[in-house]
Amino acid sequence: MTLHDVTPQYRVKPVDLAAANELAAKVGVGAATAQVLVQRGLGPGDAGGFLEPKLADLSDPEPMADRSAAAERLAHACRRGERVAIFGDYDVDGTTSAAILADALEKLGAQVQAHAANRFEGGYGFSDPALERILAGNPQLIITCDCGSADHPRIARARERGIDVIVVDHHLVPDEPLPANAFLNPHRPDCAFAYAGLCSAGLALSLVAGLRMALGARLDVRQYLDLVALGTVADVAPLDGDNRALVRAGLRVLAAPRLRPGVQALRDRAGLRARQPIGAGEIAFRLAPRLNAPGRLGDAALTLALLRARDPDEARRLAQRVEEVNDERKAVERAMTEEAIAQVEALWGRSPEHGIVVASERFHRGVVGITAARLVDRFGVPAVVVALDGSSGHGSGRTPSAIDLHAALSQCSTLFDRFGGHRAAAGVTLPAARMAEFREAFAAVTPISGGPDTTLEVDVELGDRFPMPTARDLARLEPMGHGNRAPVFALPGARVEDVRVVGDGQHLKLRLRHGDAVVGAFGANLAHHVDSIGDEVTAVGTLKPDLWRGGGALEIGLRALGPC
User: Fold this and answer.
1) Angstrom distance (rounded) from CA 351 to CA 402
2) Beta pairing, strands 536-545 & 2-3
3) Within this chain, do residues 151 and 282 fall inside the same structural domain, yes or no?
4) pTM assigned to the model
5) Cβ-based neighbours of 127, under 8 Å, separated by 6 or more
6) Got the DSSP string for 445-472?
7) pLDDT in tens, 352-404
8) What's the chain's average pLDDT?
């Protein structure tokens, strides 16, 4: 978020007023929302399905490789009351997928032992320490959730001991065949399932549906839609296709008066109330950070226990502990961000014109990714943050959307012990002694000609042609995020009716009048600019329901604010 001394610079995407008006009349939305739909290639024939996705339209699961085999093996375990160890990775997708399978298998007759990865005892995935923990319970079947696709040695060891293994994952599929009994991953080359965007929580739901059919059991799989929504949004999975229908349904569950005890206690801690409109943003910025905090700082077993809690009092106790860990995470993040910004400005000034790398022995491995994202927001260039631990460094990178981070890091790969990721985010492990080389090499492969482009892309400029959208219209665009980003609106000539400092003196809260509409506005970490806000401003940002005011009121999350 930027506060400008001059009018914020933005470019508005092309307008097709006739098409927008036609679509608005056809599907019953305002002109601004219709214009967003037109920009995204939707017309009268398909906009209705986009606005009202249905679970009945999910892709046929039968072509998913190994789904039937996995369901039959789980059915066998349930019929015989076998000991089943479920192992989830330490992020929200890992813990929610593990919680879905653990709950369903227990209800259907298996003896379940649920485990979560520990970042500092084995790290990511189905590690050697994780396998030893699991073997101590003498399981007859192991299910890995959100990991396992590349864990051939551990899976082979388990199979050698006579233990069956099912892998439920959506990450990179190596060429070497996996020695698992069943391997559910939509990215398998031989998987004919039509939708490749499912994360592990979505795959777990599909597997439970297959298990129910194999047993002929009565189990309502819709009870897990809240967990699927949490895992999908937190994992930044694409919010299109099947995921759009699953998450939309899950958002309705999350807003219901009664939830599973752990999620209800989490929702209460996040300050969200029943029957409030909950969108993907509430998951991404209020629920997921809390669920991720234990895994970031150490042991995700706390998150898994919260998601599985059945007693409301126990759930509230666990949610309180999660809140304390999240507060600790925020304190660590603030300190790391301050030190990282100081390093950047000492090395390259306030406007670096290439990718940046910072490192410190004071950095926490679990928070390097968040800190890198903060640097991207601040400086507008690719950023890698490395936590040094003796002779090695563990880092995470983020990037502006226009730059392919994975491609840039590939050009530095000879410096790394390990690296992986994708266009927008990646992780690296390298010797501490090579940090200076890495910093220089990364800068060389990520030049930003003329400095970062601060011109904002705006979907719709609100005014006479495009009045303020309604809260109902915006709700019909949900879930918004990766693959269906929230539209950006510009409000030129907005009058400031009120401005105040909130959030322990860190943030700005404004009330703006734009034409006949009054909207709230929120500017994160802008409290120090309170005295420089004029009477009339241009505001740029994303609109969402104002949960505090209610009654259809809107709030703009500011991307930029400045004089007209």
Assistant:
1) 18
2) unpaired
3) yes
4) 0.93
5) 117, 151, 154
6) H-B-TTS---PEEESEE-SSSSPPPPHH
7) 999 999 999 999 999 999 999 999 988 989 999 999 999 999 999 999 878 99
8) 94
Q: Do the domain assignments include residue 62? A: no
Report how far residue 350's alpha carbon sits from residue 76's, in angstroms, rounded to the nearest whole number. Answer: 62
> Looking at residue 525, what DSSP letter applies?
T
- Residues 209 and 293 both lie in one domain: yes
Structural domain for 173, as ranges: 67-320
Determine how β-strand 517-523 pairs with β-strand 488-502.
unpaired
Helices (H), 14-146: 17-27, 31-39, 47-51, 67-80, 92-107, 128-135
Q: Is 501 within 8 Å of 507 (Cβ atoms)?
A: yes
Q: Whole-angstrom Cα distance, residue 509 to residue 499?
A: 6
On whether residue 36 sits in a domain, the answer given is no
Residue 38 structure tokens: 């037109």
DSSP for residue 55:
G
Per the listing, tokens 């056809």 go with 26
What lies within 8 Å, CB to CB, of 96 at 6+ separation is 88, 200, 201, 204, 227, 228, 230, 231, 234, 307
CA distance 131 to 159: 12
Decide which of 390, 415, 445 is a domain's last residue.
445
Domain match, 371 and 468 both: no
**407/546 same-domain check:** no
Pairing status of strand 488-502 against strand 507-514: antiparallel
What is residue 83's DSSP assignment? E
Instruction: Indicate if 439 and 530 belong to the same structural domain.
Output: no
- Length in residues, the chain: 564
Type of residue numbered 65: A
The model's pLDDT over 157-167, given as tens digits with 9 standing for 90+, comes to 999 999 999 99
Q: Residue 536 domain-assigned?
A: yes
Interval 37-51: pLDDT, tens = 999 999 999 999 999
Measured over all CA atoms, what is the biggest interatomic distance in the chain, rounded to whole angstroms? 73
314 and 196 within one domain = yes
The verdict on residue 202 lying in a domain is yes
Q: How far, in Å, CA of 541 to CA of 430, rounded?
A: 38
Specify the 3-state DSSP secondary structure of 266: helix
Residue in the block written with tokens 């031989």: 190
Q: Any idea which residue has 């995020």 for tokens?
A: 481
